Amino acid sequence: MQMNQPSPTRQIERTEPLRATLGDRIGAGAIALMCLAVLSIAAWLSPASQGHGTHTQLGLSPCMWVAALGKPCPTCGMTTSFSYAGQGHWIQSAKTQPLGTLLTLITATIFWGALIQTITGARFGSIIQPALHPRTFLIFGILFLGAWFYKIATW
Q1: DSSP for residue 154
Q2: With contact defined as beta carbons under 8 Å apart, do 50 and 69 qualify?
Q3: Distance from C-alpha of 74 to C-alpha of 96, rounded to nearest angstrom
Q4: pLDDT tens digits, residue range 63-78?
Q5: Cα–Cα dist 97/64, whole Å
Q6: CA distance 96 to 155
Q7: Distance CA 50, CA 115 (A)
Q8: Please, what sign has the CA dihedral across residues 73, 63, 89, 45?
Q9: Residue 55: is it exposed, middle or buried by C-beta count within 10 angstroms (0-12/13-18/19+)?
């Protein structure tokens, strides 16, 4: 007759520290500042009513695709979409450039995650890392092309 003996506990080997290192926190702070800069500038700009061209307020030249071909480029309307979203006009942002709206939300999410990591040392990157899978990039590529075709169709 065998006696019930407790099974030996498995030790899980941790490959990363529980808290972010000082270097990780500084890097996260830099990422948070960059995201905040993008979102702040977008909110400061006045969205162009034609759905593209807002970037010219930053001193950038007009889009060469539009000038040469009379058609939108793959990123056409992104700055305008960010600007609408930054001012809280989410529906107009999505109508202008759907992928721009999604990228605004992603930028805001990364900002908050990086800020939390900077302040608390929580490892936000370990939450995002599983999403960095080839399938994610394929889906993003499909969304990118879809948003471009949408922009062409609504031109």
Answers
A1: T
A2: no
A3: 13
A4: 999 889 999 999 999 9
A5: 18
A6: 10
A7: 35
A8: positive
A9: buried
